[in-house]
Amino acid sequence: MRYSFAVVAMATMVAGQSLDLGLVSAAPAVTASGPAVSATAETITFSPAASGTAAVTGVATASATASQAANAKRAVIEARTVNVNNLLCQWFGWFCPASSTSTKATSTSCTTSTAAKTTAKTAAVSTSSGLIASITSIASISHITALPTPTGIPTTCVNTWTNTNAFTQDAACPTPYEVGTYCGFVNPEDPCATQPLGSGPAVSPDTSAAFLANPVFKSASLNAKTPSGYALTFQDYNASTSAATYLGLQTLTSYDPATCAAACDSTSTCTSFNIYIERDPSLNPSSTFCCPNPASITNYKCTLWGSIIDGTTATNAGQWRDGFEVVITGSNGYTKANTTTPVTPPGWTNPQSCDGAHSHPSTCIGNHFFPGPFDPQVCASFAQAQNIKNGASTGRGYANNHCNFFNAYMLKQDGKPKGTYCSLFAQQYDHSVATYHPGWLGGSYYDVETSWSFCSS
Ligand SMILES: *[C@@H]1O[C@H](CO)[C@@H](O)[C@H](O)[C@H]1NC(C)=O
Ligand SMILES: *[C@@H]1O[C@H](CO)[C@@H](O)[C@H](O)[C@H]1NC(C)=O
């Protein structure tokens, strides 16, 4: 018993050195953690260059005034070689610190000052709108058990809705259409308007229970072929993925993981996808205008993600839309994150896959957390902007204001992906010393997923 107490205390102390929870809690929430309720197509875009640059608010330096390498040979090489950083990184096995023990011995903080953090927080919040474009609502209602029956839905109605928008007509179009739209346009957001798509088979009886129990859907999910390059992470769930690494939605014409994989492959930072079958309303439900619970349609949906997704993230079991129950089944998750080498940002080189995170407090120049998909580019932009702010000279030798190495990893909180955590260092390290795993902090369990390091080129 005493022994385990000691272990806990030690783990907490070491953990406190690297993952800065203040940065995590100060980060703006992502605008969408899954598709909007009535969306059939969506694209979420991030601006890593702008976000990375905005994260820098003041000069920041590492506490170590000289390289922490005990290796004299290294010092000689640093003195002689202009492009030493690149070389050291490529020949790491030789010139990196002997073990992580030496770095653990230093207790110096590697974060910027409290004042700088407060400024950073304000800046991050005020620029958060630049992070994500054009998503107006979030659908993240999560309930795996039965959905509660909605209350307050009128039992009588009068169909009095009239479209008061201006209409226009032209010779080529048989019916008038709304100004600013096109011939035949129906706004799916109008009450009781016909909803688009619905390529899947109708279910009889038309109930959510029959939908969930449909053997055709189950078989589509269980017999789906895993696309080449991907691994199946969960199968035949009655819930879709909801997470901070959401990148977009497509509605497909069949249950086809290959099409969804192709969409992921052509989307920057996408490494996982979720394909599922959703019971959707054929009309936009409105009890006020007499269509509270219209007939259902069946949609094949494909969502894209910038992290691993697994069963832990499949938490969206649908929702009520007025008197209509949206449910989800046949939900499969696929990932290629473990076998994907992220794009090396311009100006950097030698991507190294790491088991854990790099924690070297004395040579660390700063950290920042960016909610959203895993993207080393955001860290590269952060590093570059920090170097410019610091007036750091590039080139030979160690300078505690010059970042020439960074670690980017996907931070997971209680098993769910949160965003990219970046740590900047004045010194380069081998991936073998990236052994830090945060563990329990502030009541949550934090872990490191897809951790990569890069050297300046
Ligand atoms: C999905 O719902 C069906 C019907 O209620 C049920 O039989 C099945 O076990 C559920 N699947 C999961 C993974 O919960
Ligand atoms: C990815 O790698 C991690 C760490 O090795 C492992 O725990 C996980 O199971 C892997 N996931 C897949 C889908 O291969």
Summed up:
Helices cover 23% and strands 24% of the residues. It has 457 residues and is an alpha+beta fold. The chain folds into two domains: 2-38 and 47-112 and 343-456, no CATH class; 138-150 and 157-338, no CATH class.
Written overview of the protein:
The chain has 457 residues and is α+β, with helices and mostly antiparallel strands. It has 2 domains: 2-38 and 47-112 and 343-456, no CATH class; 138-150 and 157-338, no CATH class. The chain has 13 helices and 17 strands. It has helices at residues 2-15, 21-26, 48-54, 72-80, 84-90, 92-95, 100-105, 114-126, 128-131, 208-212, 215-222, 257-265, 376-390; strands at residues 42-43, 167-168, 177-178, 231-237, 240-241, 246-252, 272-281, 296-305, 314-316, 319-321, 324-335, 348-354, 364-371, 405-413, 416-425, 439-441, 444-456. The strands form 4 sheets. Strands 1, 4, 6, 7, 8, 10 and 11 form a 7-stranded antiparallel β-sheet that branches. Strands 12, 13, 14, 15, 16 and 17 form a 6-stranded antiparallel β-sheet that branches. It has a two-stranded antiparallel sheet with strand order 2-3. A hairpin with an 8-residue loop joins strand 2 and strand 3. Helix 3 (48-54) runs parallel beside helix 13. The radius of gyration is 26 Å and the shape is elongated. Residues 231, 233, 335, 338 line the site of one 2-acetamido-2-deoxy-beta-D-glucopyranose (NAG).
